[in-house]
Each structure stands twice: as C-alpha cells, then as structure tokens.
C-alpha cells in the first residue's frame, strides 16, 4: 500500500505541475483559487500568473488560517453557493480537485462564467473517470477509486488509498467526470474550451507518465482543462 500511496502522490504532483503550465498571466489582475487548501499551491499559481491580487476560497477553517498565514486573502465560503465576486470581476480562476465534491456542478460552472472578466480564464482539474486504473477496477468488479458511494466509509476497492476523511468539512466525492462530460457541461454554461489534457498515469512514475499522457490524452489519472468566458 505504501507503493500505491507513493504512485498517487507522484500523479498528484504531476497534476499540479500540469495545472501551472496552463496558468496564464493576468497582468497584475485578480486570480482566484476555488478551494485553496493551505494556500501553498495558490502562491505558486499567483506567481505564475503575475497576479496583483490573490483570493482563496475555502470552507475548512484550518485551511483558511493556514492560507492567510501565507499572505493570501481568504474568504471562508461554501463553494456550493454563489461566489462572493461581482459579475465580470475576476481575471483568472483555478480549481483543483473541487468540482467532484459538489452536488450542484451546474451552479458552480455558471458562477465561474458569471464572475470571469471578458477574456478571463479558468483552469479546472478533477479526477478522470476514464483513467485506465478506473477502467481496470471496473473490469475486476471493483469500485473506481475516486467514485465514492458513502459519506461514512470508503469501500469497494481494496487498493484505494484515498486519505479523504469521512465527516470532514469537505464532503465525499459526488460527481466524477470523463473529459468529454466535463467539457460539454462547461460549454453548456458558456465556457469555451481551449485546453483538454490529462496528467498522471498509473502505475507510471513522473517522467514516463508525461510521455504516456502525450501519447494517450484520454486515460490519464486527472483531467486538466482550461476555459475562456464566451
């Protein structure tokens, strides 16, 4: 299991690196991280974007405090509700491993479209339901790893090393996407897709997984997509 945890951590690192590769400059404008966690990744993204102002949205009080200590302006807000920004006021958004925890994905994407400035962009990342490790799980009759069926316990796959704690401030995974499903839903809500890649590739390490996802763009561990406001 330690080996599996290490592979997961490597895939998550490659996913973060891939997100940063697709973060564009906001030229001193506003960058928002929806689900900023402790703010460590938010700081990297803000530096990459050249943000003049960075705001993190977070629901967990411990993460709110940690991100604030890093100098991030944090708002403790439920991401299942209206975002605390004016229409067309945000130059860039990132959201990493958040949308899968939400029931109302339509509201989430509508709100992203609403707050983005003309020409503004969002980089979204989430688990890939069509990744080969999920396909293999189904072939074996097991539950795909990111596809939770309970709010109390993670069951159905003996290799699942998900460290998400049932009962924490983040709910268990609600909706898991293929790249096509996420793209079509985002486009339905007025976002234009311009990047559609995957990151991480079990059981491969960092270097080999990058090669694999270039050759096979549909079956990596995580989806990374960038959109512009239409």
From TrEMBL:
Alphabetical list of CDD domains matching this protein: AdoMet_MTases (cd02440)
Listed InterPro entries: Methyltransf_11, SAM-dependent_MTases_sf
Every Methyltransferase type domain range: 32-124
Methyltransferase recorded as keyword: yes
Keywords: Methyltransferase, Transferase
A GO biological process held by the record: methylation
Gene Ontology MF terms in the entry: methyltransferase activity
Protein name stated in the entry: Methyltransferase domain-containing protein
């Amino acid at each position: 299991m330690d080996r599996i945890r290490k592979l997961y951590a490597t895939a998550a690192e490659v996913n973060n690196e891939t997100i940063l590769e697709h973060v564009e400059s906001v030229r001193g404008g506003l960058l928002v991280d929806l689900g900023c966690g402790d703010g460590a990744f938010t700081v990297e993204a803000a530096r990459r974007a050249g943000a003049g102002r960075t705001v993190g949205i977070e629901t967990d009080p411990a993460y709110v405090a940690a991100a604030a200590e890093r100098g991030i302006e944090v708002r403790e807000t439920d991401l299942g509700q209206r975002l605390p920004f004016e229409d067309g006021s945000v130059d860039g958004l990132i959201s990493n491993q958040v949308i899968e925890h939400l029931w109302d994905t339509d509201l989430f994407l509508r709100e992203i479209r609403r707050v983005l400035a003309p020409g503004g962009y969002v980089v979204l990342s989430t688990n890939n339901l069509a990744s080969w490790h999920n396909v293999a799980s189904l072939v074996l009759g097991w539950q795909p790893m990111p596809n939770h069926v309970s709010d109390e316990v993670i069951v159905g796959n003996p290799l699942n090393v998900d460290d998400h704690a049932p009962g924490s401030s983040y709910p268990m995974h609600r909706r898991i996407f293929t790249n096509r499903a996420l793209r079509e839903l985002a486009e339905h809500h007025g976002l234009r897709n311009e990047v559609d890649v995957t990151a991480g590739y079990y059981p491969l390490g960092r270097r080999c997984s990058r090669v694999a996802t270039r050759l096979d763009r549909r079956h990596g561990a995580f989806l990374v997509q960038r959109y512009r406001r239409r």
